[in-house]
Design goal:
It contains eight helices and five strands. The protein is of the alpha/beta class.
Length: 203
């Protein structure tokens, strides 16, 4: 079947009022926070070309971020720190970041659509949608905001910790990143609960 991209079907199915989409960026990297975004789109003024952030080129993602921020009803960003990731694990840190993102919305929403197979333990009426960033416009918009926000954080962190290539790998375990870990050790931004970092810290 052809891929027609995300649409508003899920939003309309769950509530005719304000529906937020939520997604995260940064579950897999060895360094840096996990970042979530929540977006309530204006269904009458939605940017064209929204899709799963991983399917978009960097320039297109950056341009869409500007449009989403300007045209959405509202949006919120939530962050869980490296310390929180190491303390409560990446799953619950992701849930925490998502909760903070929805809490940061300036409008109350009737329903929240969450990318993935589970929702945080919160008071919001919500539905998890597997591969929601490729199916649901609100989640696609959230995936773009979360990705762009986290990328900026890692590019800024790369200026303070230049050996690890974060400006390009964004904290993921690339060959350059792993080689720098072995040579220079872990920084305060490394997730010590993640096996590649934990193993090197113990050496």
């Amino acid at each position: 079947m052809p891929d027609f991209g995300p649409d508003f079907a899920h939003e309309l199915r769950h509530h005719p009022g304000l529906v937020a989409g939520v997604d995260e960026a940064g579950r897999g990297p060895l360094a840096g926070p996990v970042v979530a975004a929540a977006v309530i789109l204006n269904r009458d003024d939605c940017p064209e070309g929204l899709n799963d952030s991983k399917k978009l080129s960097a320039p297109r993602r950056a341009a869409l971020e500007v449009e989403i921020r300007a045209r959405a009803v509202c949006f919120g960003i939530g962050v869980a720190s490296v310390e929180e990731i190491d303390e409560i694990n990446i799953l619950w840190a992701t849930m925490l970041a998502m909760t903070r993102a929805v809490d940061a919305l300036t409008r109350d929403c009737a329903h929240v659509l969450v990318d993935g197979n589970r929702c945080p333990k919160w008071t919001y009426a919500s539905t998890a949608i597997v591969e929601g960033d490729a199916k649901c416009l609100s989640i696609a918009a959230a995936s773009i905001l979360a990705k762009e926000e986290r990328d900026r954080m890692m590019i800024a962190a790369a200026r303070e910790h230049p050996h690890y290539g974060w400006e390009s790998n964004k904290g993921y375990g690339s060959a350059k990143h792993l080689a720098a870990l072995r040579e220079h050790g872990a920084t305060p931004l490394h997730r010590r609960s993640f096996a590649p970092v934990a193993q090197l810290v113990l050496i």
